[in-house]
Structures
1.
Amino acid sequence: MVFFRHPTAVVESEDIGDGTKIWHFAHVREKARIGGNCAVGKSAYIVL
């Protein structure tokens, strides 16, 4: 997996696509699946 995670983001999932960017204060829970080349914006909370 090659994706960008801002230092303040919490990423518990291991299913993040290549090229995705997860920005500050975002939280991606363990069962969430995110495709490639996506953007998860500031303060987003992704559950499933």
2.
Amino acid sequence: MKAPVIQVGILSESEVRFELKGSYSNHSHGKYLSGSYTVRLQNGALELETGNQLIVIGEKLLLQPDHPGTDSFVLHEVTIGINFHWQKKEDQEFRGNLKLLSVADKITVINELPVEDYLISVISSEMSATSSLELLKAHAVISRSWLLAQIEKGLSVRTAGHEYQSAYYSDDELMIWYDREDHVGFDVCADDHCQRYQGITRASTTLVELAVRQTEGEVLIHGNRLCDTRFSKCCGGVTELFGNTWEPVDHPYLQRVYDNARDIPEAHTDLTREEDARAWIMTKPVAFCNTTDKDVLCQVLNDYDQTTHDFYRWNISYAAPELGELIKSRIGIDFGVIRDLVPMERGVSGRIIRLKIVGANKTMIIGKELEIRKALSATHLYSSAFVVEKTGTGESCRFVLHGAGWGHGVGLCQIGAAVMGAKGYRYRDILLHYFRGAELERRY
């Protein structure tokens, strides 16, 4: 198998500005472009403006660098951290092909490049380029495995003959999950919804390149199939099942793992039970990801992530009227003043899968974990592993959410893996700690 070329969706806007640093060719139209451009849509067609010149292209444009090793393009005002507390815009620089598509009154910008070059950027964007070699190698393997598995899954979804379903609605329940099936026209996006990819904007190091090259073509498999190797920032002490977060499918290699050397809880704990979940979340059990070591955390947390300090255990407080307005603005359901938040079902990590929201106007159950996180924060709640402390009554009621972990908790825990790397674990040991029963295989 040859290393594939992939398509990464960078942004979708009504106007796009970019700069070509080098000479780029469009063989379909026989054009050679360089310099700065603004792209707009006119009756569905792409219009490129540069100086006093206006170039009408059509519904798509593919620009290929004449010198792939040195030519690059800069996209201006790319939004990163979409819907997170550190969301911002920045200029980003990329190598490879630049593709522009007219899609539903927006301009979709796609970067085409070889998968191994993509991984060098992902590792530097998802984590610090100063991480340990073993951690970087582990992340290279899971990022590669996840990407190739998503391409396979995307093909399967497109050829299934029926529409992929990721939401279930009724009068009293909303269950929805967010996965890469949302994307049309490219393989993966460039933000946290998939994997952070920021081209050559984040400077890589020789260590990052070494980690990717030393694991080139290496993936995790289970039963001769690519593993869907998910990861999150901090599992909070125990990992979650795939089916409790996304589609109701059981992956044997994505199971509950207690994030410590012995893979056992401090006591017999069933975190699907409310009383056990409360005891677990209100304490700080021993775990690889239970760390305040700045040297380790700097390996995983980029500058914008380092504004978060309380990821292992955290809390947030809301007044009842404030919470009702927040939920209405976030998911469009008017519950009125919130009277109660009742966990109806928890996963094996204590993450809430189904949450009953009791309001003055409406009572309804919502899920899965990301919809719960979306509803209960102006950005995203760190995780759905929380217990509720309620004080007062009526409009004077306050809700304090005491929580654990950062992210969905499925698969590899990035902070836990960083601690393992610092303790001397090899990358194979790190991978097989989080992905039980999986095997390493070199595909190309």
3.
Amino acid sequence: MILKITMGLLLVAIVIFVFRLVLIRNIHDKLLSLNLLTIKVVLLLAVYAAYEESTFILDIVLASSLVGFIATAILIVYIGRNDA
């Protein structure tokens, strides 16, 4: 029951961050919002893995969090070079 409530709240947070990502004009705030959106999706997948009691889904969570981290790091470097 608690895991279902947590998944619902994470879905609401994901929708809020998608709207924030679309509405914000500043590139730095967009990057922060995209990073937070990635974290919320990883958390949702982790809670779903606990709900289903599946370790395979946790492997997917680990891979997606790594991809999100690398993408954020690459975007920070790219934006940092263009701002200077």
